[in-house]
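User: My collaborator sent over this chain with a note saying "see what the structure looks like." That's all I know about it. Can you take a look?
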Amino acid sequence: MAVPMIDNAKIMSKGQVTIPKEIRSLLKVSEGDRVTFICEGEYAIVMNANVYALKTLQKAMKGEAERTGLTTEEDIAELCREVRAEVEGL
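Assistant: Without extra context I'll predict from the sequence alone. Here is the result:
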C-alpha cells in the first residue's frame, strides 16, 4: 500500500481552499478540472472527478458483459463492429 500524502490548506472567507501542488499532481488535476468530495463522518476523500465517475460506472457495470453473453474478447470486438456499422449507416 502506498504511503499517504498528508498536507494542510487554509479555508478562505468564501469557503475556498487551494489544493496543495503536490496533491494536485497526485490527483492529476489542474485549473478548470473538477474534484469530487466523498464524506464519511469526520473524514473526506478528494478525488479527481473523472476518476470517480469512471470507478462508479465500472462498479455499476460489473458483471453486465457476462450477463448479456459477452464472454470473450471476440464477442466484444463483434459488438463493436455491429455498433460501428449501425452508427455509420445512420
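A starting point for your reply to your collaborator: DSSP finds four helices and two strands in the chain.
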